[in-house]
Amino acid sequence: MINEEKIPFIEHLSELRDRLVRCSIAVGIGFCIAYFFKEKLFEILIAPLAHAMGENKNTQMIFTGLPEAFFTYLKVSLMAGIVLSTPVLFYEFWMFISPGLYRTEKKYFLPIVVFSVLFFFLGAAFGYFIAFPYGFRFFLEFSTDTIHAMLSIREYLSFASALLLAFGFVFELPLVLSFMARMGLVTVPFLQKNRKYAVLIIFIAAAILTPGPDVISQIIMAGPLMILYEIGIVGARIFGKKSDMDRATDTKEDAREDKGKNTVNNNFGDYI
After folding, report:
1. Fewest CB within 10 A of the end CB: N or C in the chain?
2. Which residue intervals of the chain are DSSP H helices?
3. Predicted confidence (pLDDT) per residue in 240-258, tens digit
4. Which residues pair with 61 in a beta bridge?
């Protein structure tokens, strides 16, 4: 006989499994759709580098293995599939943690999902339109008449895709801080007091998330992160944890709503 105390945990794991399966299906569908446009997607992904290469005549792209170009298209399609499925991924993530929220807080669920997707695309757009052009131009300036840059499409794809996804996810920082403040895990004074430690953690995170060991990529990512941290403080001030009186009011409203539902169900049962 299963211990009753373990049943909620088992149900939680079962829910996590189901949501991971749905996320995997969403990514798979996105991958299949993106594969039909793999050539166009690769052209879009390589456009910032191609523009930088046009300014530097001592640069060309190569592939060093026969199947490398084929696997490159597969990886591009997979990355595009992840991007296309982000609405489902964020929806499933927030749905998984929503049982810990009050009913009055769940009304923010849809805006949170929308802003999660919006911030992700803003981060990816920042990486593509701002970080890529400046970063590529900086690195290619080291090419000379005697030193030629020969870039592998496999290495470029790994670098670019990891950087785009990293920018997309780190731009979720304001939402994460606002949510932590809402749950009472952090407060605005705490975030302000530990700003200097946050800067250190941001640079460490940028060093881990950027695919290359270069300082330029880390600075390009750390700069927006510090701005996003300040935005997160503003969000924490707006959506921070309520006072005990407000919490008591929310609890009473939840109990009143449950009582109303039970009354309706009982009346309906008596009518039947």
Report:
1. N
2. 7-35, 38-55, 68-84, 86-97, 109-126, 132-140, 153-170, 173-182, 188-193, 195-209, 215-239, 244-271
3. 765 444 444 445 554 554 5
4. 151
